[in-house]
Design goal:
The chain has 14 helices and 26 strands. Helix 5 crosses helix 9 and helix 7 packs parallel to helix 8. The strands form seven sheets. A seven-stranded mixed beta sheet has the order 13-21-20-17-16-14-15, with helices on both faces. The chain is flat and about 85 Å long. It is α+β, with helices and mostly antiparallel strands. Helix 6 links the parallel strand 14 and strand 15.
Amino acid sequence: MSSNRARPIEMLPGGALAQTPVDGPDALVGLVDLQTIPMANGILGVAEVSKHIGFPIHRVYYIRDVPPGQSRGAHGHKALRQGFLCLRGSVRLSITKDGRTETVELNRPSQAAIVPAGCWRDLSDFSEDSVIIVLASEEYDEADYIRDYDDFVRWDAGNEPVTAVPYLDLQRASQTFGAEMELAMRRVLKSGHLIGGPEVSAFEQKFAGYCGSNHMVGLGNGLDALAIALRVWGVGPGDQVIVPAHTFIATALAVDEVGATTVLVDVEPDTGLMDIGQVAAAISERTRAIVPVHLYGHPVDMDALKAAIGGRDIKILEDAAQAHGARYKGRRCGGLGDAAAFSFYPTKNLGALGDGGGLVTGDALTAEMARTLANYGSREKYRHELAGRNSRLDPLQAAVLSTKLERLDAGNARRSQLALRYFLGLSDVRGLELPAVRGWAEPVWHVFPVRAPGVRDELQAFLAERGVGTNIHYPTPVHLQSCYAGRWAAGDFPVAEALAANLLSLPLEPLHSDREIDFVVAQVREFFAR
């Protein structure tokens, strides 16, 4: 049983405190010089959130009259960020994280110590007259505290016992990135631009460039992006659009929305991606567009698809809703076809705080027409050239997405690390089939789908009993959805049907720990060893 004690302070010979210098970009504690304004009637000290503190402030408290020899703090915080200001006197602040301890002395009101999340903190050596102000990024939350140092060491090292693993916990992301997102949203509110404006334009430019393309139009959601692209190209009644039978239904709904005919093709059994051989066989004189879905974050073989088209006037509309940052032969998805539809639904690799979408294209006319259609068919206020719709990415979501875009590559790299952990831990399990990765692909693992033929439902129930969350992408193939009753029949697309019966998505997102993935691996192995 752990005792409720403070972190032991390391002492040097002679009684001096062991101190790690605070210097350089890897320092745990950020020392910030505040703005100081000498005036005839006194000195004004200024600490601004954007310039000095770096996080929104939701709680402020002070410490004073600490008895000689006493200390404060002696606890850790999982997500809380803090700023320490010594308004009078002096105090010693020690911060521990990742097995390192840094110590600073605060003795002037013109300097603040900024402490990141996930740290243990000790305050000691208070002068008799010291007054300390503490700025906190969140209101009081006892669940964020770690009050025993041994418990903190275990937590800091990732050695806490794992008893459950959520499939996806969006609260983790909010705790990790919430401060930056809050500052971004505040920037929008302060600007007064609540529809369109510089935040939307900036994100459109950033994301288009990220995809290796020239233009992006921010839209309301991924379905709108698909449908608007088809409409820009004049796809409508009498036309055919080829779509994989194994995908989220929005891919097919977009074709229905413009009045064209959905032509489904079956998929590859090991990737779930559209079977290019079947695409080639399905192309007809009425084919106007093909929608390759980069399912689960793995790109479709675009060169093979273009070869199947063979120079015919057929548009390629990438459904990249799950493929933010994925690469095909070194090029990112989003810049591989005539246009690409993205979703920024909150669970995506690049997710907003609500619905959002976008259309990326290298063609200026396509972008202009899409923007016009999405704005009630209008380029000039109250003049409507087309019968358009309202589908716009709002500035709040654009600001959040701009902030999160900076972390996308790191998040995708972490997904790849965790996917490798699954491959290493599960590759020898008989009865379990792991996803295939083509040699030309750099997937981003939006989903880690395994196949458990004949026992998928039993495996899912077994994992649920042991606290492991899972998902199924997707339990009913497109052609067997009720809204399409009578258009197709069971057995028409046997591979898609087999995937719907056998696929199970295991937990995988950047904030999962190695130990959590190892826990899932152990439970899966136990199931198949029975």
